[in-house]
Design a protein that fits this description.
Blueprint (H helix, E strand, L loop, with lengths): L1 H30 L10 H26 L2 H41 L14 H49 L6 H32 L7 E3 L1 H18 L3 E5 L8 E3 L1 H18 L5 E9 L2 E8 L29 H11 L3 E6 L5 E8 L4
Parallel strand pairs: 2-4
Antiparallel strand pairs: 1-3, 4-5, 5-7, 6-7
Helix pairs in contact: 2-3, 3-4, 4-5, 5-8, 6-7, 7-8
Length: 368
C-alpha cells in the first residue's frame, strides 16, 4: 500500500516543480513570436525589452558587488555598458536616421513637390509613419492637380464673356449720346471687366507654371530700355488716377542680362500695378534701375501706408491677399517671383525707410 501511495504523491510534486519553468519558457517564446503583446511590438517593444535587460544587468552587477563575487559584478557591468552602446547605435540606425529622411521628404512636400514619396524601409512605427506621409503627399498632389485643372478650366471659360463685355462697353462709350449716370455705369463696367480680365490672365499664367507649360525665350536684354518703355506707357494711365510716376534712369550704361524681355516687362507692370493699387494714397511711385555688384537692380517704391509686418513674410505666397481692403487674385507677386527665380534672380518685398512699400528685383548680369 505504501508503494502505491508513493508514486501518485510524487507525480504532482514533479508537475508542480516543472510548471514554473514551463511557464517561463512559454513566456519567452511568446516574446519572440507574432503573438506577443501589443506593448512589446515594433520599436517600442525592442526598446522596452532592451531597457529591461540593461536594468537587470545593472541590478545584478550591484548585488554581486555588494554580496557575492566581484568578478561577476564586473561581467554584468560590462554587459550593461555593451547593451547601452549597442542600443544607442541601434536607435540611431533604426529611429534617428529614418526620421531625418522623413523630415527631408516632408520639407520637399512643403516646398511644392507634391506627390514625392519616402522609401518604406521596415514594418514598424517608422514604416507606419512613412505610409502616412506618402498617403498625405499623394492626396495633396491629387488635390493640387484638381485645383490647377479647375482654375484653368474656369479661367478659359471666363475669357469669352469678358471679351464680349469689354468690347461692347468700349463700343458704347463711343456713343456721345450716352451721358450722365448711363455713361458712368458703362465706364464702371468697362473698368471692372478689365480688372477681371487681368485676374483671369494671372490665373492662366499660374496654371501654365504649375503644368510646366511656362517657357522663357532667352536673349540679351537691355533692362534700362525695357523699364523706360514700361514707365512711358504706364505713366499716362497712372496720371488719370492722380498718381505721379517718377522714373530715374541709370547714371551710366548698364550691362545686359540674359532673360525674356516680355516676361520681365510683365514683372515690372505687375509691380507697378500693385504699387498703384496699394499705395494710391501716396500719389507717387518712384522707379529706378542701377547696377549693384553682379546684379542689375530694379526698385519700385510707392508712398502709401506700406505692408503690414505680419503680411511681409507671406506676400509672395499664392492666393495670399493680406489684410488690405484692395481686391485681387493674390497670385500676382507669386507669378513675378516665379519669373524672376527662373531668371536666376531675386524678388525682395519690404518697406522703405521713409514709408511706403519697396519692391526690388535683382537680375544677375551673367546666369549659369
Amino acid at each position: 500500500m505504501e508503494e502505491k501511495n508513493t508514486k501518485p504523491s510524487g507525480e504532482p510534486e514533479q508537475s508542480a516543480q516543472s510548471e514554473p519553468g514551463s511557464r517561463a519558457w512559454k513566456f519567452i517564446k511568446r516574446l519572440f513570436s507574432d503573438d506577443r503583446p501589443e506593448s512589446l511590438r515594433g520599436l517600442k517593444g525592442v526598446w522596452l525589452m532592451t531597457s529591461c535587460i540593461g536594468a537587470v544587468c545593472v541590478l545584478l552587477a550591484l548585488l554581486f558587488a555588494l554580496f557575492w563575487d566581484r568578478i561577476w559584478a564586473c561581467v554584468f557591468a560590462a554587459a550593461a555598458i555593451l547593451i547601452l552602446l549597442v542600443s544607442n547605435f541601434w536607435f540611431r540606425e533604426r529611429v534617428t536616421s529614418p526620421i531625418l529622411g522623413l523630415g527631408d521628404t516632408a520639407r520637399h512636400i512643403a516646398d511644392g513637390s507634391y506627390g514625392a514619396l519616402a522609401e518604406r524601409l521596415r514594418d514598424d512605427e517608422i514604416g507606419a509613419l512613412t505610409d502616412a506621409i506618402n498617403d498625405m503627399s499623394v492626396k495633396i498632389g491629387k488635390a493640387d492637380r484638381v485645383q490647377s485643372e479647375f482654375i484653368s478650366s474656369v479661367s478659359h471659360e471666363l475669357r469669352t464673356p469678358l471679351t464680349a463685355i469689354t468690347g461692347w462697353s468700349e463700343t458704347l462709350l463711343y456713343d456721345e449720346a450716352l451721358q450722365g449716370d448711363s455713361r458712368r455705369g458703362i465706364e464702371i463696367i468697362s473698368r471692372e471687366a478689365g480688372r477681371l480680365t487681368s485676374m483671369v490672365e494671372e490665373l492662366l499664367e499660374f496654371t501654365r507654371m504649375r503644368d510646366g507649360r511656362f517657357t522663357l525665350n532667352l536673349e540679351q536684354v537691355d533692362v534700362a530700355a525695357v523699364l523706360e518703355e514700361v514707365c512711358f506707357t504706364y505713366s499716362e494711365l497712372l496720371r488719370h488716377d492722380g498718381i505721379e510716376l517718377d522714373y530715374k534712369p541709370p547714371e551710366g550704361d548698364l550691362p545686359y542680362v540674359t532673360g525674356d524681355p516680355r516676361r520681365l516687362k510683365q514683372v515690372v507692370l505687375n509691380i507697378l500695378d500693385n504699387a498703384a493699387k496699394y499705395g494710391r494714397g501716396g500719389h507717387k511711385i518712384e522707379v529706378g534701375v542701377a547696377q549693384a555688384g553682379e546684379y542689375v537692380k530694379i526698385s519700385v517704391r510707392d508712398h502709401g501706408p506700406g505692408i503690414a509686418q505680419d503680411d511681409l513674410p507671406h506676400v509672395k505666397e499664392r492666393f495670399y491677399k493680406g489684410r488690405g481692403k484692395e481686391r485681387g487674385s493674390g497670385i500676382g507677386l507669386a507669378v513675378c517671383d516665379e519669373i524672376v527665380a527662373r531668371h536666376s534672380g531675386k524678388l525682395i518685398v519690404g518697406n522703405a525707410p521713409g514709408g511706403g512699400a519697396l519692391v526690388t528685383v535683382l537680375l544677375p548680369v551673367e546666369t549659369q
